[in-house]
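QA checklist item 7 of 12: single-chain prediction sanity check.
[x] sequence parsed
[x] length recorded as 310
[x] structure emitted
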Amino acid sequence: MSQLGIIKWQKPMTKVLYALVPVVLASIYFFGWRSLIMIIISNAVAFLCEYAFAKYYKNQVTSAIFVTGTLFALTLPPELPYWMGVIGIAFGVVFGKMVFGGFGKNIFNPAIVGRAFIYVNFSTYMNGAVWYNSASGILGGFTKYGVDAITSATPLPLMKAGTSVPLLDLFLGNTSGSFGETSAILIILAGIYLLWKKIANYRLIAGCLVAFFVVQAALFYSGVSGTISPLQGFLGGGFLFGLVYMVTEPVSSAKTNIGRWIYSGLIGALTVIIRTFSYWPEGMMFAILIGNMFAPLIDHFVQEIKGRKK
């Protein structure tokens, strides 16, 4: 960990930022320069919010705030008004992180807290009214401010309704969706990088994947109405993005090895259940928040059981 002025730079967080660079570039390619503007605004507001509290706590702003700001922005719809993004990231940083005491003390992932807040309060923009197709061509959105064509829904609702969405489009990212959640291949490569650098704990990824595929397959092959295939569910929506960048977030996840399996498995299973049986087409956000809430309790019982066996 190194220090530069008022910012405390943490090597693990810097590597997460490296892993986000391809996704950021893809967001610009698919949805135009508006993506980068939202990322800059989100990071600026996040930094100011943490800085205000850091002065009160008499400590430094950590580089983790830039991970939070970038992750938050990448989960937003391409045409969300900037002021809504400002409200969301400010709420996430202040009430999802700083009121708990700052970095390392927060229970919930602040980026998810911020997204959930505006998801509930501005549902027309966040959950269904109008979504936008990705750009195409060699330069894609690099020659545009925003996006042009309009579509009525993101891939998950379309697939649940029986509409075919090419798996190759889901894999590459040529679909409607949030800024950074559409390209499965880039997110998978980022996950491999984080595992290779030992920033992400493999138990968190493996536990979530196993639970997701088991529950998704059980519902799909038993003929439950509205259930999509496991591969469609894996590639479509925000599952992969949440898995790689948020389930693996060390502060708000379980800390014991056994607890990590339980915690991540809970998120994977809940994602499928929420997607299938609730009004919300995308269950990863709420599943992560529920997992965050139970993570300390899971670790407590794991340690208690271990203590009894000694």
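[x] summary fact logged: The first helix runs from residue 11 to 31.
[ ] second reviewer sign-off
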